[in-house]
Design a protein that fits this description.
Elements (H helix, E strand, L loop, with lengths): L2 H57 L4 H92 L1
Helix pairs in contact: 1-2
Length: 156
Amino acid sequence: MTREETVDQFFDSVNESYDALLDAVKSANDRGYRISRKLIDDVEQAQRDTFDLGRRFATSPADVAGLSANVVRSLTDAQSRTLGLARQLLDEVSDSGREARDTARKLIEANRGAGQAAIEATRSTVKRAAPVVEQAVNGVRARTTRKAAGTTKKSS
């Protein structure tokens, strides 16, 4: 693999990990919005139902049977909305867990790719630098040997 390909692979892998994190944040934001929207809609409906009950009672205070039926229907509707919200929360939590696993998998794969590219770049650099380093070490070794030989001759 050429150096340019290795650099491209590394940055592509890093970009993939950022994309995975960004997608996870966007999904969490969408989930939060859906839950908030459902809660707001349910509160608005409960408010309208309560208002309607008050209006019916004010217009017909003697109609106890009708009022009782309306109260039971309103309570049943409120329970249904509450169960719907709970079901949506559970669905969102389930989706969140699945998305967290997918994000973790994507991050691991991207980091593996970045790691492999970094290893390849290091190998390539070491292979290119090895002859230069070896030449420098041999030059130092030769000078050291000559100095040591010169010092030994002077001592004799």
